[in-house]
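WARN retry 2 of 3 for item q-0093 after timeout on previous attempt; input resubmitted unchanged.
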Amino acid sequence: TAFLSTDGDRWANRDGWMGNAASSATDPCGWNGVTCVGDVQTVTDLPGADMNDAGGRRKLSTSIASDRKTHIDDIQRRARIINSNGEAGNGRSLQQDIPPEAIIEIDLGENGLNGELPADFGTLFPYLRTLSMASNNLRGPLPETLFNGQTPDLQIVDLYDNNFSGSIAPDISNMNNLLVLGLGNNDIEGQIPASLPSSMQFLELGGNDMFGNIPGDAIGAMPDLENFAVSDNERLVGSIPGSMFDNKSKLLRLELDDCNFDGSIPPQIGQAQALNYINMNGNALLSGEIPEELYSLADLDTLLLYETAVSGSIIPSIAQLTNLSVLFLNDNNLSGPIPAEISNCKSLVELKLDDNNFTGGIPAEITTLPLLERLHIHNNPELRGEIPESIGDLVALRELILYSCGISGA
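OK item q-0093 returned
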């Protein structure tokens, strides 16, 4: 049924399905993209990822966390370790006495699937743990049978970059084993459910037509959440709730860009000490000052906070961000001097401070940043003084833009 409803004859790889190629049509364990419980090898280690830092906190490298597929694969490997003990983690349990031919994983990403998933999809695969059909051309509503208890072991749902429509069923709150929900870049509408599984580690809803507010309490109740992305949902409104940062010692990526959030950045963001990527750009109504607590995020690699109404100054505490490589604060209402303490951010590669209201001069200390490649300070008419003579010490610099300032020589 699933094969026929998704235009299976045109799949990029359909080996085994409906008797294609050498695989037996009666043995689904040999079909492309299908894994049965008897096929899963025992996993005891996670190559390429340190499980914990010195404080016992879950930690991923920036390269793993920045690539969605790699991040999801990492979560799946960790889940397999726990699943091999017949558990799902944090006291949750999986179904027992599963027949060896039971299908537990379906991975048909980037495979040319077209059409709709059948409404009874969940009942066809009652032992399913992983469903990955990202980057296809699937459309129609999400099958409610995926979320209403028909697949109680489901841990990973990755349907990113399709054309699914409709809303997220409220029954999703009962999916106690769910770790990954990747629904970005679809046509899903409706509000983010007020109740969500606390087990989630990866929640991706960006690039849809969601509306309403972020359910702060529901997000705050996810202690293992590593990725939260709702970017490019223009009808998401209201303030960024401070409660969403409760119990967030593992949060790595926060994507809130190109929505319509207002108010200020909550100081509770400082509780998410593992954050290495923050994107809030394009929220024109986001205002207030950058909270001092944000400068305490020592692992932060990327801060994209441009095209907002954020005001105030950059405080000397920015010196704490020694791992910061990308800082975009352009097109805001920032004022005051550019702090000399920014020179302590020795990892900076790209720095954009243009289109603000900074005063004073360009601090000479900025020329001690050894990796800086792009420096944009243009359209700050109140900046004065001269270009530091030591600007030539920026040996990595490829792009320097200083027009429409009061800087001599610009």
